[in-house]
Amino acid sequence: MIERAHLRFWLIGAAAAIVFLVLLGGVIMPFVAGMAVAYLLDPLVDQLARRRVPRTIGALVVLFAFTVMAIGLLLLLVPLLQSQIVEFGRRLPGYIERGRQAIGPLWDYFVHNLSDEDLKRLPELAGSHAGQVLQLVLGFVVGLVSGGIAVANVLSLLLITPLVAFYLLRDWPKLVATVDAWLPRDHAGTIREQLRLIDQSLAGFVRGQSLVCLVLGIFYAIGLVMTGLDFGLIIGLFSGVISFIPFIGALFGGVLAIGLALAQFGFGAKLAAVVLVYIVGQVLEGNVLTPKLVGDRIGLHPVWVIFALLAGGALFGFVGVLLAVPAAAVIGVVTRFALLRYLESPVYRGRNGADASGNRDGS
Fold this sequence. Notes:
Layout: H1 2-24, H2 29-50, H3 55-102, H4 104-112, H5 116-146, H6 154-182, H7 188-227, H8 232-241, H9 248-265, H10 269-294, H11 302-343, H12 346-349
């Protein structure tokens, strides 16, 4: 009966949290962003505290340095992005024409193998499918924006997020102690262990994957610039940033770079060089960066991360994207704990207590 009461309590809490996110998802975005910033910066404040720097001063110093770096990065990137977008728009007609010439033989071969009826239906089919794809993309983008940034506007995000991050950084040990005091005494040890595993998994993924993205962004940017690709710097950095989503960064960035290279260079050595940059980048990520910086013990499979990000964005907008990886870490740890309990229970082992290999206990 007590176990059922505990289960009912946690299920009610999870349901209340989901309802809270649905109703106030946009409003709480600055608070979620503040918690994310505080979680990332807390180890630095802890280091200052160990050197006898008061947490209030340490939180101010670390948060100020982080804010200055973020603003400096924005001031550096925004004008660069603006000029690159304007330049891309100016060159776009030329790219389209060179791309048409490059794929002209393939298009002629495709058209010559179609019947007259298929040729007549081709524009209609292309228009309908393009409209459906565009509608899906626009719907996702509108939902993402309206679920986050539109409600909690940029001004509130910039004002509230630093305040939330500062107070959390200042009071982090008190908050941890308070939550620890709320834990049910009979299960406090088990819950602490699972929270430690969640923190280990989440910190290992976020901090490790951030370093992977930084290294990949620099590698892709340098490699694409060396090939002579227009806008190679921007495309390379963008490929590195979105590599936070496993496989998607290389896929999306590679398609963008290769398409632009095809329009700029046509088929040839330059196009092969761009393809080689992304192949080497993937080999570097899979065999060096991810094993060294992220490791294989964090318990977050790439497919699970991709699903979590897409599901979080679709359900709760931008707030869902921010909460996706923490939620994935929590669900992963809880699932492994539940599976371990199941494998140790009579439900799995049976009345005679057979182990996982089919042998009976004591045999």
